[in-house]
User: Fold this.
Amino acid sequence: RLVPSLCNHTCSRVRTMSAARTLASKAAARAAHRSAVRTAYTQSKDTFDSVFNRFATHRACAVLRTPTAAAAPKAMAAAIDGGFKIAEFTLTTPGCLDTLADFRAKYDGRVMVGCGTVMSTLECEAAMDAGAEFIISPILIPSVVEWCVARNIVCVPGCQTPTELHAAHALGAPIQKVFPGVAGAMAWVKAVSAALPMLKLNPTSGVDLDNAGDYLKNGAFGVGLVAPLFQPDAIAAENWDQIQANAVKVIANVEAAGPYVAK
Assistant:
């Protein structure tokens, strides 16, 4: 028969061991869940390389932001008909993920489709669930970059200074978006790309139908076309022919610059 003090000690030890096993079990379950979530979105190295190489080849991305869900598919289809091979649907557009999913199904293998204005890892998951092939953010959010890097997903975070751009590169972002526009425009891009050749600069603001090719010739890895391509008045008037004509013009300038050549 155990004396009371020994009984209390033994019971306490049993409870401690039981609690430890419970905590260990919960920790293992959380680890398994994290592993499953990561595996669900992880891309192969070949897929990562394919996405990156298509950016390097085509070098121009149509960046769509429309006030209505109805306008989005028509506007982007016009840009694709005009020659764009990379399409970005921003989360600020109503119905963005539904439209993205539809375009991925329709153009898979012919046009690369991704999601922009992604601000959190939850939005990364939603974008990937919809079929996004790449992730773009307007600012540098380390958790988003790290999430993508861990899963072999091409991400393009927005940065404005050389310090931000290099920080994005150091985190593992293979392409860095120059946003918003910078004073000096393409001269700034030329200077930064020359000083920091490891960067892959992708300016958007300040890029228009006429100067897109000049940005590429002056050190930009790629460019994004927003309002100059998707003119608000053309979208309001449902003038899809104008958007297609804009696309034809800018793609001709981009193609004249040729594919990206690594420094």
